[in-house]
Amino acid sequence: MDYSGAIKRQHSSIGLNLVATQEYMMVPSVNNKSLFSSEGVKVDLTHLTLESTLADLPTHTFEVNNDSLGEVVAKTFTKEPHLPGVVILDGDGDVDAIISRGKFLEQVGRAFGVEVYLSRPIRVMMGVLDGRYLELPHHTSIQEAASMALNRPVAMAYEPILVTLPNGRRALLDVYILLLAQSKLLKLVYSLEQNRRQLADSLRKTGKALTSTLELEKVTKRILKELSKVVWYKRGTVLLKEEERLRSIAKRGFPDNMSHSDLQVPLQAHEDDVFYQIATSKKPMIVDDVTKTTGWQQLDGLDVHHSWLGVPLISYKGVIGMLSLTRPEPNAFNEDDLTVVRAFAGQAAVALENARLYRKITKFKDQLEVRVEERTIELNRAYDILEKLDRTKSNFIEISAHELRTPLTVIKGYAQVMNYMPNIQGDDKSEEMIEGILAGVDRLYRIVNSMLDVAKIDSNSLNINREEVFIPNIIYSLINQLKYDLQKRAITINLINDLKDVPSVNGDATLLNKVFYGVLVNAIKYTPDGGTVTLECICLEDGMVQTAVKDSGIGIDPDHHELIFEKFYQTGEVALHSSGVTKFKAGGPGLGLAVAKGIVEAHDGRIWVESDGYNEEAFPGSTFYICLPAIT
Ligand code: ADP
Question: Probe ligand 1: pick from 519, 527, 564, 607, max atoms within 8 Å of CB?
């Protein structure tokens, strides 16, 4: 490469610029004619921010006249032993050459009769001369420029960079200055990150302290205490928004004789009112000097604090209040304070809202407890009355059953006597009437006995005479007893497995007989003519003998499955009551299942019904289950 030829070309063009760079040094600017200062100036990077661009960094450019170019270059390099290179621009600012020390400079020196001694090896930047130099617009960010500079081929990485200036001219940027600026920015990022972490940490601690209680009074006091740990202030208040005013609920730094009502602020709906502005804009606000603010009202008895910071407390409901802080001197709050207080206010609003909700819930809970207590007293009273009534009813049942038995015995006795009287015997009509009387008396006896059983069950005085009872025997005997009724109603009895394979139970045969009688008679009663009653007796794994009485009858609504075991409860119409024991749907007094349940439970057993529901067309049927503990 003929470098001297390149220089010659510059000589022949008009208005050449010589641009020089120096490591860590800023060269005085273009027009002060002093060219290079041998001392140089330390680069000041303190003004840099994260948004800084190449325009914020010092670049080097100055002009020399045509004739002196070679001499100037030579002199410059001689005077500035650390100067890495020069860029030669033409009058239009186009780069004609970028050169380093080295052979080229030696040649230039020789041509102008100047001796040049080099203190370090300098290369001619061939790549740049070939148009491969890094040229960046002045608005390129420092971070971006640094990464591009360092991503150049290794040999180029530390070569200067050409910066295009706003006026279209170019200047030379020392890559060391660029890297220095980048490291300054990295430090800035790091310290910002540190600050952010510290703030996040103290906010986390504050948040924890704030939410550690749900009592409104404590929360409000804690807000100002915790806030003073993250931002210094002289006086502070927590204000809650209430329709037309801000009510003070916590204060700090005020004289003791100043009450909350002294500190409340009316919300005036006009633009000069800072509180109104914050409440409507939901944005915090700094007043640098309240004495210069129109409409600022200074409270009597307080020293003037010039700086004020107001931050809204915002919850999901909107602005619920605000934090008001002051410092004595003017211009004392800055954007950093605002950021911290704003972050704090977010947490304070959550804590306040939680405390308010908690208070509401606690109040509601207290009211609820009082009401529950009142209702419990009322219920207990009603229960007492019902119990008394039930006892009266039981007593009545017992007394009336006893009272009925005596005349029944008399009627039965006379009817039996009459049956044997000679003028009756042989008289068909009279005999039929006496038989009717005796059948009615028997039915009445059964009812009276059921009444007595119920009374005994209610008073827990059922007497159980235990013996070994084989349930299938009871069932066989009942089927035999009811065989005429079954025939009359054309109802078939199905016995599954012949009921044989079950153990005996330890119980009262007479009482258990009543249980199975009641259930079997019901199965016949509520099954239409021609239906089926299926009986199954099995031993369950839990050691219970379970008898299932399944009919093909009218079924029972699930709502009544439990109620039918209550005394005097019937689902059918009272009008359908009939004197026929097994007549279809002939209701009784509603005692059969109550007695059965009482007896079964007195034997530590269970009785229940399963049915898909009541339907007199589909006849879904019902299955009654009776479980009694087997003898082990
Ligand atoms: P009742 O003397 O009326 O038969 P129960 O206590 O024996 O009294 O029965 C109570 C009610 O249960 C009956 O009125 C009837 O409505 C219903 N019930 C009992 N067994 C059956 C059944 N197998 N099918 C349908 N309904 C039944």
Answer: 564
Cα(469) to centroid of ligand 1, in Å?
A: 26
Tell me which residues have their CB closer than 6 angstroms to ligand 1. 518, 522-523, 526, 551, 553-554, 556, 564, 569-572, 587-594, 622
* Between 83 and 103, residue with greater pLDDT: 83
Residue with CA nearest ligand 1 atom 23: 523
Residues 506-537: tens digit of each pLDDT: 999 999 999 999 999 999 999 999 999 999 99
287-307 tens-digit pLDDT: 999 998 877 877 888 889 999
Which ligand 1 atom is nearest residue 569's CA?
A: 10
Other CB atoms closer than 10 Å to residue 288's CB: what's the count?
14
The answer to whether the CB of 553 falls within 8 A of the CB of 531 is: yes
pLDDT tens-digit series, residues 404-459: 998 999 999 999 999 888 888 888 899 999 999 999 999 899 889 999 999 899 88
Ligand 1 centroid–CA 619 distance in Å is: 15
Where residue 102 falls among pLDDT bands split at 50, 70, 90?
A: low
Compute, in angstroms, the gap from residue 397 CA to the centroid of ligand 1.
Answer: 20
Look over the chain and give the mean of its residue pLDDT values, rounded to a whole number.
81
Mean pLDDT is lowest, of 65-69, 200-204, 344-348, 456-460, for 65-69
Mean pLDDT of 250-274: 83
Q: Which atom belonging to ligand 1 lies closest to the Cα atom of 594? A: 6
Ligand 1: centre distance to CA 99 (Å) = 117
Strand runs (DSSP E) across 194-284, as ranges? Answer: 235-242, 245-252, 265-266
Which of 522, 535, 591 best tests ligand 1's pocket when mutated (most atoms within 8 Å of CB)? 522
Q: Give the pairing of strands 170-173 and 135-137.
A: unpaired
Helix and strand totals (H; E) in the chain = 15, 22
> What letter does residue 569 receive in the DSSP assignment?
-
Q: What's the pLDDT band for 7 if we cut at 50, 70, 90?
A: very low
pLDDT of 118 reads: 40
Distance 203 CA to ligand 1 centre (A): 72
Q: 548 vs 447, 517, 536, 557, 622, CA distance in Å?
A: 25, 13, 5, 19, 10
Facing residues of 624 across strands? 549, 609
379-390 tens-digit pLDDT: 999 999 998 988
Q: Which atom of ligand 1 is nearest to the CA of 549?
A: 23
Which residues are 322's β-sheet partners?
239, 312
Q: 607 CA distance to ligand 1 centroid (A)?
A: 14
Going by alpha carbons, the residue nearest to atom 12 of ligand 1 is 564
Ligand 1 atom 16: the closest Cα is on which residue? 571
Instruction: Provide the b/e sequence for 562-599 (b: ≥16 CB within 10 Å).
Output: eebbebeebebeeeebeeebbbbbbbbebbbbbbbbbb
The token duo for 224 is 């100002």
> Which parts of 13-79 fold into alpha helices (H)?
69-79
564 C-alpha to ligand 1 centroid (Å): 7
Look at the alpha carbons of 373, 376, 381, 382 in this order and tell me if their dihedral is positive or negative. Answer: positive
What one-letter code names the amino acid at 133? Y
- Which pLDDT tens digit goes with each residue over 60-76? 765 555 555 555 666 66
| Calpha distance 37→595 (Å, rounded) | 122
Counting residues of the chain whose pLDDT is more than 90, the rounded percentage is: 41
Cα-to-centroid distance, 442 and ligand 1 (Å):
20
